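tokens incoming
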């Protein structure tokens, strides 16, 4: 526990409700700007509509500067959204920290960068970069990669390889050539060196698994990046064009592996003495490949065949508690005094629950990028195993099972606060399949009705929100607002997050006039939830927390 955290003061005039305060995070559910392509609006969500109509509600910012990103042109994401909802303040996040470190030169003066570059220069070996090649700015940004390539050239690195994962989730779903071909041209522009793309494939097919959901993705990435195994091509551009011809409509995120080769020889295997930088700054989809590089002989997730002795580093420290990876280029935000830490210091019994896909968000990210619990006796964390199938085939995901656990917890009377994440709007939203998203929304809405009934019985408070938008913006739109179409004339699917605001709904069936419920405070971001929840529980929030949604009377 942080030294600055002490028990919260109680509000002498209001002790809170007899039941728990429950926070429902509808992941990826915002208020759409356009009617066409808004799968939330297209869904029949009678329970959410009724809760909105009968309760004080407003809209919250969940992107850009409101969650610590560089500008309001940057879409929010689940990592920074849960950070904000968990700590009650806004911290500069990964993209901004990395951009600043590059702009000031601090990254390149740092011991880690110098060590990795010196290693390959002294040994005459290869500097490798693995990561997501796009400008989505959620997991990575191509400008960061280009800056590091330019610096490596300036410092005399002779051989460099890029292992490029294709995005299609945080950017246009079929935009891979907009990033890959210019990157190949950029690498070729450096004189008297050997700089090339060596391997790659779709981010949802290889390398970028998270929460141990599907280690076979990591194995496929290892085989391509490290061992040079996989379908071979003369260039990444040729690989993408070939796959598009063979599988019309294939999304970038699902594209199979490609290995660049001279004849039958892969040009970019990773070998003893090389240096490797995983250039994603976001941690959740970087931890497993990091474990494959750093794991010792006890690593048993898949057969690595051979484990090269390399200098490995991440763009950032992906796990601040376990200090993973051992080496990193930029320090992550130091998030302290989170809501969970304050509540447990105040004796509050709480529970966090989601399925595998978002379990780390309601625990690790919500707690300020910290593993474990603040108090083993006061916190219960429940993970429901996700199905390992394409999300459009099971769009309801595990929302019913999550709700079962929540209702059981409410009825038990053990908990003062419960938080949960329904992943549907985000994970199914990323597929681009409109009808599947509608199905996911309506499945989730049924569960909201079940939770409301339990809240009514227990005399609690139900808070409903989201960490960012996604399912509210499922079509690509032109600047004039018209829907873009594909070659067949069908709407062009959008698979990335949106810049739209998200809900803030407070359902309080035993309201007794303690706060102004006619209008919630406006113009706020999702970082306002901690102060709000503390006040709804009868506590006085820390003075430096962002403003609460309610004004006590």
């Amino acid at each position: 526990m942080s030294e600055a955290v002490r028990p919260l003061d109680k509000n002498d005039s209001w002790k809170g409700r007899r039941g728990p305060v429950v926070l429902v995070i509808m992941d990826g559910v915002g208020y759409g700007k356009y009617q066409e392509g808004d799968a939330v609006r297209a869904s029949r969500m009678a329970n959410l509509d009724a809760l909105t109509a009968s309760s004080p509600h407003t809209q919250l910012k969940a992107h850009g500067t409101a969650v610590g990103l560089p500008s309001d042109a940057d879409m929010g994401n689940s990592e920074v959204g849960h950070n904000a909802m968990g700590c009650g303040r806004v911290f500069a996040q990964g993209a901004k920290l990395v951009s600043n470190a590059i702009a000031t030169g601090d990254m390149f003066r740092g011991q880690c960068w110098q060590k990795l570059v010196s290693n390959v220069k002294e040994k005459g070996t290869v500097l490798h970069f693995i990561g997501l090649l796009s400008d989505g700015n959620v997991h990575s940004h191509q400008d960061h990669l280009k800056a590091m390539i330019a610096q490596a050239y300036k410092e005399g690195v002779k051989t460099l390889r890029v292992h490029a994962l294709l995005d299609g989730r945080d950017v246009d779903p079929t935009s891979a050539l907009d990033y890959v071909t210019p990157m190949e041209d950029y690498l070729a522009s450096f004189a008297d060196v050997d700089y090339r793309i060596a391997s790659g494939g779709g981010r949802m097919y290889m390398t970028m698994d998270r929460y141990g959901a599907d280690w076979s993705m990591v194995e496929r990435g290892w085989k391509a990046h490290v061992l040079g195994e996989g379908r071979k091509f003369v260039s990444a551009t040729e690989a993408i064009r070939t796959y598009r011809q063979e599988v019309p409509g294939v999304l970038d995120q699902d594209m199979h592996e490609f290995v660049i080769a001279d004849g039958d020889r892969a040009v970019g295997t990773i070998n003893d003495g090389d240096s490797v930088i995983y250039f994603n700054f976001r941690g959740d989809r970087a931890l497993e490949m990091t474990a494959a590089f750093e794991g010792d002989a006890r690593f048993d997730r898949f057969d690595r065949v051979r484990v090269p002795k390399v200098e490995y580093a991440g763009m950032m420290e992906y796990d601040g508690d376990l200090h993973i990876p051992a080496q990193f280029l930029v320090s992550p935000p130091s998030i302290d005094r989170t809501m969970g830490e304050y509540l447990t210091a105040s004796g509050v019994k709480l529970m966090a629950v989601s399925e595998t896909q978002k379990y780390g968000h309601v625990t690790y990210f919500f707690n300020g990028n910290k593993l474990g619990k603040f108090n083993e006796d006061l916190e219960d964390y429940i993970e429901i195993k996700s199905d390992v199938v394409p999300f459009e085939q099971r769009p309801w995901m595990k929302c019913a099972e999550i709700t079962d656990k929540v209702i059981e917890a409410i009825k038990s009377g053990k908990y003062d606060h419960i938080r949960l994440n329904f992943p549907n709007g985000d994970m199914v939203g990323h597929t681009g399949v409109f009808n599947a998203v509608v199905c996911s929304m309506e499945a989730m809405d049924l569960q909201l009705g079940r939770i409301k009934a339990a809240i009514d019985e227990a005399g609690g408070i139900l808070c409903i929100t989201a960490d960012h938008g996604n399912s509210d913006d499922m079509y690509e739109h032109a600047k004039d607002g018209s829907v873009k179409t594909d070659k067949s004339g069908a709407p062009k699917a959008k698979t990335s997050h949106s810049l739209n605001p998200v809900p803030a709904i407070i359902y309080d069936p035993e309201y007794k006039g303690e706060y102004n419920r006619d209008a919630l405070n406006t113009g706020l971001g999702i970082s306002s939830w901690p102060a709000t929840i503390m006040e709804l529980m009868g506590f006085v929030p820390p003075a430096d927390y962002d403003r609460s949604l309610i004004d006590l009377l």
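note: The radius of gyration is 24 Å.
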